[in-house]
Amino acid sequence: MERQITDGGLLRGVSVPGTVWARGWHHLITGSAPRRRHPDDLRAVAGRVREWLAADRIAEYAERAYWSQDENRTRRMTRVLTSALEALQDHLGYPNSRCEVTIPIMTSESSSNYGRADVALLSCSLERPDIVFEIDSQPNQDAVAKLRYAADAGALPVWVRHGKGPIPVLDGVAVIDVRPDALARAALRHRPKRVQEGRDPVIDTGPYLW
Prior knowledge:
Elements lengths: L1 H5 L15 H9 L10 H12 L2 H10 L8 H14 L1 H5 L3 E11 L7 E9 L8 E6 L4 H12 L3 E6 L12 E4 L2 H7 L6 E2 L13 E2 L1
Parallel strand pairs: 3-4, 4-5, 5-7
Antiparallel strand pairs: 1-2, 2-3, 6-7
Helix pairs in contact: 4-5
């Protein structure tokens, strides 16, 4: 099983369509404990994702994209962000990136009822955590469930939010707001906003809103 996990980050032979998130299924099948993450791992990754998803880069990917006339604004932005997050593979030094990766959690979003991560950066090393991204234009409880499962299975979960609606923050999940007002604020600061004060910064893993 571990050989399958390190073989490109894919798990074969599981009876679900498409690409599956190997480590998530391994965690479910074996009941194994996730690799212990360093407390700074999520913050470090979230900081680099925040820097990458700057307003000018999002605009650059939007200009590259092909738009069909019947495609709405929300769908367009989701596609732009998906392309930008896939490109993080090289920026962060990950060997594999995949879209619509099936994870072993039941949701209401598809006929198969299995959840799918929008983007996953997959490591070939058991010592380096995968990064699981969800992209949403509004609050989504299915996304919350998937991100929490990803955290339990040892990944670094990152929730990228655009569109409208409140943005809840979650312990152990990096939440990155890419709405125009938030991007303008992010350009003026170099540290995330800590949502809850009074935590030990040495061991704190969130919640943070970037």
